[in-house]
Structure formats: structure tokens, C-alpha cells
Amino acid sequence: MNFSIKTLQFLRFCLIAFCCYAGFILLFAYLYFITDSIGLTQYSRPFSEKVDFVKAIYFSIVSFHTIGFGDIHPVTGTGRTIVMIQSAISIFFTAMFSGLLVYYVIKRPNDIFSTKKLYIRHRNNNFWLSVRLGNKGRAIIDVDGRFEAWTIEDNSRIRAFQCQRELPDLERILYFDINLDEQENMKLTRALRDSLHGKHRLHMKISVVGNDIKTGEQVAYAKYYDSSDLLFGQMFLNVYSWDANGHRKDFRWKNFERIEPMEAALVDAFTEE
Questions:
Q1: Closest CA to 120 of 238, 184, 204
Q2: pLDDT for residue 182 is more than 90
Q3: Is the pLDDT of residue 135 over 70?
Q4: Is residue 85 within 8 Å of 63, Cβ to Cβ?
Q5: 186 near 195, Cβ under 8 Å?
Q6: 251: part of which helix (H) or strand (E)?
Q7: Which of 1, 59, 193, 229 could disulfide-pair with 72, CB 3.0 to 4.6 Å?
Q8: How many CA atoms lie within 13 A of 80 on its CB side?
Q9: Which DSSP helix (H) or strand (E) runs through 88?
């Protein structure tokens, strides 16, 4: 049986919460038992019966949930102190568990990702710097993308390039492309060429911010790259096909990182100084 990342996180949280709950119950049951600080009330028969560890666990559960049946009660000052401590802890535990449970149920999992590499691609007679974004969750709308590139010189960050733009809705696949042949992007082109020739180490960051289409929750994603993450390629391999109704189907996420190789002559054309 395969579970989604969100389901696994939810189940892991429930398991941890249950273990903490059981730990609290057993801890206080042990304290009641070793201090011999609880006893049966007069209407519980037989009154002389000793409270064993099983009954201590029962009393610990009843006290934790502040039920108070009254068949067992603290008979010493130590017992009353332990009950007060357990009751106080139970209030905070219940509140924290409820809040975190709602958080895990409602929150969006981290299901946005990007290619591990940045690609210098050649298509439509132009060179492009490209990254492919994927989304395995609900669609993201009102998407803004930001790209930054910088170098480090004398322990200072020197900005080489920056751009920000509105992007289409991120349903499953989205591309962030920068045309390296456009005049406004030539500063980035020179910085990329210099980094490929080993003149400096270029650091880059792609970040995306949008809103979940159903909940309106703001979703953000960012990934850092540097010169060692640059590869050359042509077209990305398809990760889906289209049905007769114009909907994407048959997703093959294994193709997400795959790209057609670039001809050596084109690589030389880009890298030549």
C-alpha cells in the first residue's frame, strides 16, 4: 500500500502523539503506584483491596482526561500533588495535540520541486537559461518567480543579475526561462560564460511564490544553484501526454530531469569568448 507524503506525515505525527500520551499515562501510573498514594473509596468493594499497577494505570487515564469517577482517589498529600501536576500537563497536551492535528490535516505538504540542475538550452535559435518546476499537489495560482545570480568577492556578495516576473499557474509543470540572447539579459550571459571558463563561481537562486487554488494558502519554494549545476541541453523530455479532452495524463515523473543533449558546436558557440 502506497501512502502520500502528507498521509505519512500525519500517521507519523499520530504515532508520536500516541507514544507521548502512553508515556505520560504510564509515568504517572508508576508514580501513583510506588508512592502508594491512591486508594479505593468506601463504596468500592472490597474496600481493603490494594490498588495494583493496573488500577494505577486506570486512575492515571481517568485523571489525565479529568473524568473523575471517584472510585479511586488520592489518599495522601503526595497523591494529590501528582494529580494536580498530571491535570495541568493534560490541559497543555490536549491543546497542543488538537492544534497540531489541525495543522497537519490542513497544511499543504512540500510537493513543489525543481530540476536538480540549471540548463543552458538552445531552442528557436536562441540560448536560454531554464529550470523546470513540478507540482504534485493542488494547482498554484497568482504565481511570481524570481531569479538571482551573484558572486562572492572579498567576502562580499556582488549581484550579477536579478529578474522577477509573473508566471502562469503551476498545475503540474512550469518552466522558468530566461532568454540569454536578449540585450537586457546580457549581463547574466557574460556571468555564465565567465563561470564556465572558471573565472569565478556563480551562485544562483530560483524562488516561486503563489497561492493554493483551494485554500488560498500562500506557497513558497526556493532552490539554490551554483556554477557546478550548469548543464547544456535542448528539449526536456515529456512527463505527460494529452487526452482527447485536452487534459494532461500518464505522468512520467522519471523524465522530469531528462533532457536532450546539445550539439557540441552549439556548446562551443555559447562558451566562446
A1: 204
A2: yes
A3: yes
A4: no
A5: no
A6: none
A7: 59
A8: 3
A9: helix 77-106
Tell me how far the alpha carbon of residue 119 is from its chain's centroid. 25
Cα–Cα distance, 5 to 103 (Å, whole number): 15
Fold of the domain spanning 5-106 = Helix Hairpins (1.10.287)
Sign of the alpha-carbon dihedral angle for 62, 68, 72, 77: positive
3-state secondary structure 5-74: HHHHHHHHHHHHHHHHHHHHHHHHHHHHHHHCCEEECCCCCCCCCCCCHHHHHHHHHHHHCCCCCCCEEE
- 3-class SS of residue 255: helix
- What is the C-alpha to C-alpha distance for residues 127 and 80, in angstroms, rounded to an integer? 76
Domain ranges of the chain: 5-106, 112-271
Among residues of the chain, what percentage have pLDDT more than 70? 92
For the chain, the residue count is 273
Judge whether 200 and 151 are in contact, CB under 8 Å. yes
Third-level CATH fold of 112-271: Immunoglobulin-like (2.60.40)
Helix axes 53-64, 5-35, angle to 10 degrees: 120
